Every structure is written in structure tokens, then in C-alpha cells.
């Protein structure tokens, strides 16, 4: 176009060389017009850079930008009102990312089900407003002012014939809404846990993940049954339910099963002998313990007496003892000489 040629014309270069559009480079620049990137592989003039760094960098930048603009005006251009616009091609240079590529979000339970069944939701092109015949106005289907429109619409609730007249239908509707919100929030948290491979306890019967053995399951069942105020006395039992073995020691207030009486004289004699041996062994252990403690106590008292004697002996002075003599003017500072200490 004539406009482009007039812009890129080399007029007025003689008066002001800084306005020239022709720039000479030994090595042509690598220019990517899609990203407006120009890469200069020419060597730098080190002497000029050190002597005049600001002017040298300014001139170098100006020349490279001029070459980039010249390449832009070589593209097909068109006029839009009072502006001339050039159509840039697709970028060739791949810009590096500062962060890692985000991983695709895992599908929710409903999205996975819809994908398997081929269900498609048409969200694009759907209007947010919907005409309500009762209110006779446009009502938003979601978002802002949706709750107000719903309150205006449900100002009167029809009750059934068998409904309790004392119940408030508005309170029931509010509780039902809160329950739905809680259910949706629980499902959202489950989706997050499932995406991060976190195992959550199922609602309902326990699985093998929670109780690997039958003994643990029976213990949990016994503890749950005996966790009432009556320690499970009035709690109904399941068919063929038995208390877990050894759980009576851990649950306070739970009655232990009494041992069956001996069937004959030999069993009774063996049982009595075991009881006596157990008592004697306990007495022996107690006696040994007391003996050790007694010996340790005696030794400690002896140590205390010795310390007391040393203290009392140092404090008392013997009246018959001779007084220490002085050094008679010859005193050795390094040798220990007796005598009265002067203050």
C-alpha cells in the first residue's frame, strides 16, 4: 500500500539519521512475528559497551525494534476506520512456562456416569433467566436473587390431609433444603478425597478394611453395646451374639464370667494348690522387695549420720589444742602456713 511505503520511506534521513528505517546487520535476526520476538545473534562491541553502555544499548535496541517493525509491515495489512492493522501469523517459538502444566481435574462421580452413558449437558447458549408464569416476570434459574424469587413464589405451602397441624411446613422446607446442601457438600468432599486416593469409611456396614479379623469386629460390637449408661444391661442382643474374649477387663462395670466349679476332688485340689502357690509367690516377691528397700534405707541413714558427724566435728574446737605459731617474719606465699587469719 502507498501508506505503508510512505511510512517506511527513507525521507529525512540526512537531517536526522536516527529516523532511518534501513538497518544493516551482519547476521540477520531470527524474528517470530507470532510472538513479536526478535533474537539477535550478532557479537557485541565490548569496547563501546564498556565506555558508553547506555547509548550503545539504546542504539542496539532501536535497530532491532526497527527490523521487527519492518517485518510486521511486510505482512498483509488493512485499514480499520483510522488505523492500519497487520494480521500476525501463528507463533513458531514455544515460550517456556514458569509453572508446570496443570494436571486435568479428575471427573466427579456424576461426570463419569454421564460420560459412560453418553449424557450431554447443554450449558452453552442457555439463558440465565426463565419466565415464571406465577410471578409473571423473568426469574434467574441460579445465582443472585434466585432465593428471593423462590420466597415470593412459595409464600403459601399446601399441607396434606394426614399432616400434623402442629408442624410448621416452612421449617420443614428449610430443614430439607439444609439437608440437601449438606448432602451436596459431603459429595463434594468425597470427590476431592477420591481424586487424591484417600480412603474414607463407608456409610453403613463396616468392611474388611476397617476390621481385618472377626475378633476385632466382635470387640467393636461388644464395646458399642456396653457403651450405654447401664453397661449394655437393657440393650437387645443380636441372634447368636457373644461377648468378645478378654473385653471385660477393658470395659469398666462389665461383669466377668465366673469360673465353673470343680467337677471332682482332684480338680478342686489342683485349683486350691494353684491359689496357695500364687499367694506364696506374691508374699515372697513382697518380702524380697521389702528386704531390698530396708537395706537401701539402712545404708542411706548411715550416710546421713556420717555427714552429720563431719559437720559437728568441724564446728567444735578443742580447748587443749595448741595455738599455731607465726612464721616470724619469714613467710612463704606458696607454702601453707598456720596462724590466725587477719581481717
UniProtKB/TrEMBL annotation:
InterPro entries: Ribosom_reg. Residues 11-21, 169-184, 287-305 have a biased composition (Basic and acidic residues). Its main location: nucleus. The keyword Nucleotide-binding does not apply. It is found in: Nucleus. Residues 1-21, 160-184, 244-343 are annotated as: Disordered. Coiled coil: none annotated. Residues 306-328 have a biased composition (Basic residues). The keyword Nucleotide-binding does not apply. Pfam families: RRS1. GO terms for biological process: endonucleolytic cleavage in ITS1 to separate SSU-rRNA from 5.8S rRNA and LSU-rRNA from tricistronic rRNA transcript (SSU-rRNA, 5.8S rRNA, LSU-rRNA); ribosomal large subunit biogenesis. GO terms for cellular component: nucleolus; preribosome, large subunit precursor. It comes from the Eukaryota. Keywords: Nucleus, Ribosome biogenesis. Transmembrane segments: none annotated. Involved in ribosomal large subunit assembly. Belongs to the RRS1 family. This is Ribosome biogenesis regulatory protein. It comes from Dinoponera quadriceps (South American ant).
Amino acid at each position: 500500500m502507498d501508506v505503508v511505503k510512505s511510512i517506511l520511506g527513507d525521507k529525512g534521513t540526512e537531517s536526522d539519521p536516527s529516523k532511518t528505517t534501513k538497518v544493516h546487520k551482519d547476521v540477520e535476526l531470527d524474528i517470530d512475528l507470532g510472538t513479536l520476538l526478535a533474537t539477535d545473534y550478532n557479537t557485541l562491541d565490548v569496547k563501546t559497551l564498556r565506555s558508553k553502555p547506555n547509548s550503545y544499548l539504546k542504539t542496539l535496541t532501536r535497530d532491532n525494534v526497527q527490523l521487527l517493525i519492518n517485518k510486521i509491515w511486510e505482512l498483509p495489512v488493512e485499514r480499520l476506520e483510522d488505523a492500519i492493522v497487520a494480521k500476525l501469523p501463528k507463533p513458531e517459538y514455544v515460550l517456556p512456562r514458569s509453572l508446570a502444566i496443570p494436571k486435568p481435574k479428575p471427573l466427579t462421580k456424576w461426570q463419569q456416569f454421564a460420560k459412560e452413558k453418553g449424557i450431554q449437558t447443554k450449558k452453552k447458549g442457555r439463558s440465565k433467566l426463565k419466565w415464571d408464569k406465577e410471578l409473571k416476570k423473568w426469574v434467574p434459574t441460579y445465582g443472585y436473587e434466585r432465593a428471593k424469587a423462590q420466597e415470593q413464589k412459595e409464600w403459601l405451602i399446601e399441607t396434606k390431609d394426614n399432616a400434623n397441624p402442629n408442624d410448621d411446613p416452612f421449617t420443614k422446607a428449610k430443614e430439607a433444603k439444609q439437608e440437601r446442601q449438606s448432602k451436596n457438600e459431603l459429595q463434594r468432599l468425597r470427590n476431592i478425597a477420591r481424586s487424591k486416593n484417600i480412603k474414607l469409611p463407608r456409610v453403613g456396614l463396616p468392611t474388611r478394611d476397617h476390621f481385618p479379623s472377626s475378633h476385632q469386629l466382635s470387640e467393636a460390637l461388644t464395646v458399642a453395646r456396653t457403651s450405654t449408661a447401664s453397661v449394655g444391661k437393657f440393650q437387645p442382643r443380636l441372634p447368636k451374639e457373644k461377648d468378645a474374649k478378654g473385653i471385660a477387663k477393658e470395659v469398666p462395670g462389665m461383669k466377668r464370667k465366673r469360673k465353673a466349679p470343680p467337677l471332682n476332688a482332684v480338680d478342686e485340689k489342683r485349683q486350691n494348690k494353684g491359689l496357695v502357690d500364687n499367694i506364696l509367690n506374691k508374699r515372697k516377691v513382697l518380702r524380697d522387695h521389702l528386704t531390698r528397700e530396708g537395706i537401701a534405707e539402712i545404708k542411706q541413714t548411715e550416710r546421713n549420720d556420717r555427714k552429720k558427724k563431719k559437720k559437728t566435728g568441724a564446728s567444735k574446737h578443742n580447748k587443749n589444742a595448741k595455738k599455731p605459731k607465726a612464721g616470724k617474719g619469714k613467710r612463704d606465699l606458696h607454702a601453707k602456713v598456720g596462724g590466725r587469719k587477719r581481717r
